[in-house]
Amino acid sequence: MMGRVTDDVATRPRATPSRVRMTGKQRREQLLDVGRALFAERGYDGTSIEEISARAGVSKPVVYEHFGGKEGLYAVVVDREMELLLDRITTALASATHPRVILERAALALLDYIETSTDGFRILVRDSPVAHSTGGFASLISDAASQVEHILAAQFKARGFATKHAPMYAQMLVGMVALTGQWWLEVRSPKKADVAAHLVNLAWNGLSGLEHKPRLTGE
């Protein structure tokens, strides 16, 4: 009797586990994660709605429902990365007062972001194909420069320089750091702190006063 019961149980078809349904918010976050990874890996033009939906395990209409298309998804990804990067830079600058330490922390903030959010930085340094206020490498530099412009203006005023030139110098400094970061993203050598020290060496001392073995002073 027991043998027959056991045999009956063994021959019953196993129930297929039901797929866990995501909430609208969870699905949106999943699509953002998938899109971020694909845009970083293949670029905007190399990524299709079909690939995004396939990797997310959903149909194409689901992507359109949440973002209106690939452009909308890309725009949200870029916005999030810009917000993350600018928040790091602003936080770093707010904790320093000496101008050299400000420069050191700004450089380290960008390099930290590149190290911990590599996919995000790869997306930001590509020119955005979307007519979007925060898309593209040029906008990245401009938005980051706006965070340090007022600090430079205060330093210029204290030293008797024309504050009208502060925006231009802010673009120079941030552009130098961002382009160096783009290069470091691929080579990852020397170490992050050494890269920041050499950046500060050039920005602070100029070519005529370069230190042979620069190091960070505000750590």
UniProtKB/TrEMBL annotation:
Q: Which residues bind DNA?
A: 48-67
Q: Does the keyword Lipid metabolism apply?
A: no
Q: Which InterPro entries match?
A: DNA-bd_HTH_TetR-type_CS (IPR023772), Homeodomain-like_sf (IPR009057), HTH-type_TetR-like_transc_reg (IPR050109), HTH_TetR (IPR001647), Tet_transcr_reg_TetR-rel_C_sf (IPR036271), TetR_C_32 (IPR045823)
Transcription recorded as keyword: yes
**Biological process (GO) annotations?**
negative regulation of DNA-templated transcription
Domain of life of the source: Bacteria
Q: Quote any Pfam family the record assigns.
A: TetR_C_32
Tell me the segments the record calls region Disordered: 1-22
Keywords on this record? DNA-binding, Transcription, Transcription regulation
Which residues lie in Basic and acidic residues bias regions? 1-11
| HTH tetR-type domain span | 25-85
- A GO molecular function for this record? DNA-binding transcription factor activity
PANTHER family named among the record's database cross-references: HTH-TYPE TRANSCRIPTIONAL REGULATOR RUTR, TRANSCRIPTIONAL REGULATORY PROTEIN (PROBABLY TETR-FAMILY)-RELATED
What protein is this chain from?
A: TetR/AcrR family transcriptional regulator
Q: Which species is the source of this protein?
A: Jiangella ureilytica
